[in-house]
Amino acid sequence: MKVLITGSSKGIGRAVAILFIEKGYAVYGIDICEDTIRHRNYTHYISDVADAATLPDIPDVAILVNNAGVQGSGRDIEVNLKGAINCTEKYGIQPLISSIVNIASVSAHNGAEFPEYAASKGGLLAYTKNAAKRVAVYGATCNSISPGGVLTDLNLPVMNDTEKWGKIMDMTPLRKWATPEEIAGWIYFLAVTNKSMTGQDVLVDNGEIINHTFVW
Ligand SMILES: NC(=O)c1ccc[n+]([C@@H]2O[C@H](COP(=O)([O-])OP(=O)(O)OC[C@H]3O[C@@H](n4cnc5c(N)ncnc54)[C@H](O)[C@@H]3O)[C@@H](O)[C@H]2O)c1
């Protein structure tokens, strides 16, 4: 079974690729960077998800994970939202598709973080529902996951700053961030174990969204 993961060179995407390889799938990765995984069941393409015209031809994808993302880049909407749409339209809307998982963010729900980042992820939740209805005719599901903070390079500016990190932990009820491997496990569940939930989003955020102050 063919699995395609975008943004597979680092962070969450890399952890997802490794998990699916371990489970015995034929894994394909797309990234603007070189591959960081060497395995007989892994094929890497260097390509920009925002550029629909140059995406490689990969027929018969069964599982698509739209993970490639940037934040505060000036291209957040182009990469995070348009990139996921480009890949879904090219690889996902076809009879052999079995599931699609889009990586959104807690900021899609609370509007936090960079303005265009929040908008890109909010748009992804709406597009997930649109695509879910269209792949349902093939018996396939399409869902999204909204992680809170995850320990990846995307967040190095705050992970390496003791003061900022302390503030973030004070605002996070479970006082920790998720590992890429934990998020990969959730993505695997949504893509493989799940057969009946579609068009939905799962928040995995260590309680960021429930952090509010009760005034009485
Ligand atoms: N890390 C977090 O705290 C967090 C939280 C919520 C959501 N997310 C989302 O999870 C996804 C993965 O984030 P991460 O933390 O693993 O980031 P990361 O920076 O560690 O990895 C992102 C990967 O995407 C690739 N990429 C970037 N632009 C691309 C493009 N145009 N085309 C193809 N590949 C491209 C990068 O080269 C990199 O390999 C992103 O969509 C991000 O918005 C991350």
Describe the structure.
- Helices cover 38% and strands 17% of the residues.
- The protein is of the alpha/beta class and 216 residues long.
- The protein has a single domain, classed as Rossmann fold, CATH 3.40.50.720.
- The chain has a seven-stranded parallel beta sheet with strand order 3-2-1-4-5-6-7, with helices on both faces.
- The radius of gyration is 17 Å and the shape is globular.
- The relative contact order is 0.15.
- Nicotinamide-adenine-dinucleotide binds next to helix 1, strand 2 and helix 2.
What is the secondary structure topology, with strand pairs?
Layout: E1 2-6, H1 11-22, E2 26-31, E3 42-46, E4 63-66, H2 76-92, E5 99-103, H3 107-110, H4 115-135, E6 141-147, H5 156-159, H6 162-170, H7 180-193, E7 201-204
Parallel strand pairs: 1-2, 1-4, 2-3, 4-5, 5-6, 6-7
Helix pairs in contact: 1-7, 2-4
Residues 6-7, 9-13, 30-33, 48-50, 67-70, 79-80, 83, 103, 105, 147, 149-150, 152-155 line the site of nicotinamide-adenine-dinucleotide (NAD).
In percent, how helical is the residue content?
Answer: 25-40%
Principal-axes geometry comes out as globular
Strand content: 15-25%
Order of helices and strands: EHEEEHEHHEHHHE
Q: Domains counted in the coordinates: how many?
A: 1
The radius of gyration over CA amounts to: 17 Å
Looking at this structure, what is the CATH superfamily?
NAD(P)-binding Rossmann-like Domain
What is bound: which ligands?
A: nicotinamide-adenine-dinucleotide
Query: What's the average pLDDT?
Result: 97
What's the story with the biggest beta sheet?
7 strands, parallel
Structural class: alpha/beta
- Helical segment tally? 7
CATH topology: Rossmann fold
Q: What's the arrangement of strands in the largest beta sheet?
A: 3-2-1-4-5-6-7
Query: What would you say the CATH architecture is?
Result: 3-Layer(aba) Sandwich
Q: Report the uncertain regions.
A: none
How many angstroms separate the termini? 56 Å
Name the CATH class. Alpha Beta
Number of strands: 7
